[in-house]
Structures are given as structure tokens and as C-alpha cells.
Amino acid sequence: MRNLSALRPEILGISVERLSQLSNASWTSGADFKRAFYRAALTSQVGLCAYCMNQVGEEFRNRPDIEHFADKSKYGQWTFEILNLSLACKYCNQTRKGKYDVVVTLARNYGQCSFALIHPYLDDVEKHLKGGYPALQTKPTIPQPLTLKGARTIRLFKLDSIFALSIWTRVYDDLEAKRNMDESERLQYEKAKDELGGY
Ligand SMILES: [Zn+2]
Question: Which InterPro entries does this entry report, sorted A to Z (predicted)?
């Protein structure tokens, strides 16, 4: 898990009026919002699940869910709260997290609530976990908890499994290989990709 930057409404291309219309709406009525969020978040999360950092998206035949940190069936007021949303793989969202109630202290303002798990936008992951895969250019290791929140997050998403480490190592090696390509190789690679087009 690593810190993510929250998406601003202007990046989504959703107007303030539309957002306020959605503030009391049900999840099924926000198809335009969901499409825009999905597209923008896939880019900003560089195609990685917010929790286990597995590769997601059509390219990997692994379509992620738009995950509600605070469950929308219990906290309907945050169904379209951007800070409450991220993309997560189906394993993290459905199998592991399910309806787990993350809210410890409820406040009117989302940012003033306290949560039981590490929040992908509001917490600093490195304050709660030692190691893991906190930044894309950091070599991944098995994470150790530094706080109770860290321990809960590791346990819930099984972040200390060998499988999680193997996912991060693959992502890290892939990025490292791209970084190590010198400029001419990179240009050749880009050219080859262009020539192949949609094939
Ligand atoms: Zn995941």
C-alpha cells in the first residue's frame, strides 16, 4: 500500500452542480461520475489496486471495482465523496474488505472522521507500516506494522503474504526495466509500440 493523491472534481470533468445533485443520489444513478472516476483513477493509481497494488485494468484482464472506503450501504452520505473512493481489485474489495466498518469516530465532515484502517488519501502509509511497497521506486519487502491501524490493514488485506510480495516485485522489476532503458532504446520501444498500433 502507498499514499495516493485524491482526485479533484475538475480532473474528473464533473461540475460542482452535478456533484451536488449526486450528494443524495444512489450509486446506480451516477453512471457519468463512475465512468469519469474510473478513467481518472486508473491513471492516477498507475493501474494498481489501492490496497494490494496488484495490476488492474483491461490490459491485465482484471477490471477493478470503485471501492467505497466507508461502505455506501451504511454511510450513504459519502456514496459520491471523492475522498471515499478508490480503485481496488475484486479480491481486496469484495473478498477481503466486504462490509468491514472502517469508521471509528463519525464526523459530519469526512476528513474529520477517524478510521480503523490506513486511509489511502488521508493517512501517511509510512507512519503505519514499515517496509511493504510504500513508493513505486522503493524495493518491496514484507511489511511490519508500526501501529494498530497498520496491523489491521496488513491482516485484512493479507499484505504480509509471499503472494503480495511477489506482486510488488513484479511491478517494481517492470518499472525498473523501463527506467533502465536508455533513451534510444526507449524511442525504439515507443516506435515499435506505435507500429504495432492496435494489434
Ligand atoms: Zn487488491
Answer: HNH_nuc
88 CA distance to ligand 1 centroid (A)?
5
Ligand 1 centroid from CA 91, angstroms:
6
Distance 154 CA to ligand 1 centre (A): 12
Q: Which amino acid is at 29?
A: S
pLDDT tens profile 13-66: 999 899 999 988 999 999 999 999 999 999 999 999 999 999 999 888 899 999
Backbone angles phi, psi at 171, to 5 degrees: -65, -45
The residue behind cell 471515499 is 84
Q: pLDDT tens digits for 111-158? A: 999 999 999 999 999 999 999 999 999 999 999 999 999 999 999 999
Give 56 Cα–ligand 1 centroid separation in angstroms: 8
Residue with cell 534510444: 184
